[in-house]
Amino acid sequence: MTPTPSGNTTNNNSRRKGSNGNTPEQVYNSVRKPFNYAEGFHYLIQYVKQKMGRDDLMRISRALALIRPSFLALIMNLTEEDLVFMEKCFQRTLLEYEKLISFSGTPTVVWRRTGEVCLAGKEFSLLTQWTKDALLGKKTYIYELMDNQSAVEYWEQFSTLAFDNTDKACIHSCILRTPQQRPVPCTFCFTIKRDIFDLPSVIVGNFLPILS
């Protein structure tokens, strides 16, 4: 989806586990290289091929093809410095969302445009039984926590809103999976936040259980 940068941030633990009380200055100083978004999209295709059927693969491929030209058009003129700045802005945004999530009573997750989870509130852990360490101790993608149909529908919804001119939230239903693969039916709302280059940057998802 994006040109492969020369490397990643120097502090992967911080990227996955939140700011851990870092100051903005520490966040800015921790970023030395652009984030490798291409890796995440490559993982998505591998995951879909392994876990889903051909029809699901085609639907997600069409969704990615829909947004690919816009991504390339916006990124092709960005310099290495621009990409580093983009990651600094992302990390600084996480610092603020970590505070907001701590005050929220709604199960909330924050992820990158690749789907990689970067923040998760305690309420989300209570809802799904996924601990913060399990979600953030290694690369975990939001679609890995959903059943296949919900994952496909998420990417289709994301592709229609990624470059929409509004900041409207997308609301629909989904089924999350616990570590034991128990289904958790939810109402799912996500909002896409764009960076200074108008690229989808931070996706904030809120989940509410559907009571039977």
Automatic annotation (TrEMBL):
Renumbered residue ranges of the record's region Disordered: 1-26
GO CC list: nucleus
Chain ranges of the ERT1/acuK family PAS domain: 106-180
Coiled coil: none
Transmembrane segments: none
Gene Ontology MF term list: DNA-binding transcription factor activity; metal ion binding; RNA polymerase II transcription regulatory region sequence-specific DNA binding
Cited InterPro entries: ERT1_acuK_gluconeogen_tf, PAS_13
Biological processes annotated in GO: cellular response to starvation
Compartments, record wording: Nucleus
Name of the featured protein: ERT1/acuK family PAS domain-containing protein
Lineage: Eukaryota, Fungi, Fungi incertae sedis, Mucoromycota, Mucoromycotina
